[in-house]
């Protein structure tokens, strides 16, 4: 399996025509892969630089019209949050999922920030950032789609089936799989049990394959 740092650099390279390169481009790619929201503190930690350098980068994103920085209602104690919403960024990164660009509830925003925190703390894990990446990786192991957690969203044009609908971080290699559940404190243990139950068939299939 490809090294995660090389995969990130490859995605980040696609941002060069948009004026981003190097570690700053890698950060944008990483943030977009894990939900599209972040704080300046998270970006500063990733770069290991002075906060004003990150401030200039955030202002550049906003000036390009691909991001907004705000203090959303319902979230306290973490300051302003940057949300990358620009279609050109996601198109360049190969992340066509519109859900990443939408305004979300405080609960979903916090869950994405916590998931990004975990990814930052474990940079060597081979993360599967997109729904397509995840489905393809598990199918490559011989696991049928019917065993994957999924949800059908009904709309005017019919139903759309989404796999791994919560979009929480997942990593997979030949020996182990990592499923992250980020709970910002809005729900009880019932939500965690429900999430676990929806993954039960997949986890059993992985266990049978010797992947812990």
Detailed description of the structure:
With 212 residues, the protein is an alpha+beta fold. It folds into 2 domains: 4-103, Winged helix-like DNA-binding domain superfamily/Winged helix DNA-binding domain (Arc Repressor Mutant, subunit A), CATH 1.10.10.10; 131-208, no CATH class. The chain is built from 8 helices and 7 strands, in the order ααβααββαααββββα. It has helices at residues 4-13, 22-33, 40-47, 51-63, 87-93, 106-121, 131-140, 189-208; strands spanning 37-38, 67-70, 81-84, 150-155, 158-163, 170-172, 177-179. Strands 1-3-2 form a 3-stranded antiparallel beta sheet. A two-stranded antiparallel sheet has the order 4-5. Strand 6 and strand 7 (177-179) form a beta hairpin. It is globular and about 50 Å long. The relative contact order is 0.12. The model has no long low-confidence stretch (mean pLDDT 89).
For the record, the count of structural domains works out to 2
**The named CATH superfamily of the largest domain:** Winged helix-like DNA-binding domain superfamily/Winged helix DNA-binding domain
| CATH topology assignment of the largest domain | Arc Repressor Mutant, subunit A
Secondary-structure element series: HHEHHEEHHHEEEEH
Helix/strand class: alpha+beta
Strand coverage percent:
5-15%
Q: What's the total number of strands?
A: 7
* Shape verdict: globular
């Amino acid at each position: 399996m490809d090294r995660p740092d090389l995969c990130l650099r490859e995605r980040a390279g696609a941002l060069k025509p948009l004026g981003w390169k190097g570690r700053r481009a890698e950060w944008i790619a990483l943030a977009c892969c894990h939900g599209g929201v972040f704080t300046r503190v998270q970006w500063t930690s990733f770069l290991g630089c002075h906060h004003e350098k990150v401030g200039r980068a955030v202002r550049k994103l906003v000036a390009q019209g691909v991001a907004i920085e705000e203090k959303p209602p319902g979230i306290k104690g973490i300051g302003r949050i940057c949300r990358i919403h620009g279609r050109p960024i996601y198109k360049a990164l190969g992340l066509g999922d519109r859900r990443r660009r939408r305004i979300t509830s405080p609960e979903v925003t916090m869950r994405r920030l916590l998931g990004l925190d975990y990814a930052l703390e474990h940079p060597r894990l081979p993360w599967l950032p997109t729904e397509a990446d995840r489905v393809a990786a598990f199918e490559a192991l011989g696991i049928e789609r019917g065993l994957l957690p999924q949800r059908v969203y009904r709309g005017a044009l019919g139903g759309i089936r989404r796999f791994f609908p919560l979009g929480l971080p997942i990593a997979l290699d030949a020996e182990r799989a990592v499923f992250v559940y980020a709970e910002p404190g809005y729900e009880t243990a019932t939500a965690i049990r429900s999430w676990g139950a929806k993954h039960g068939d997949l986890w059993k299939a992985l266990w049978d394959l010797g992947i812990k």
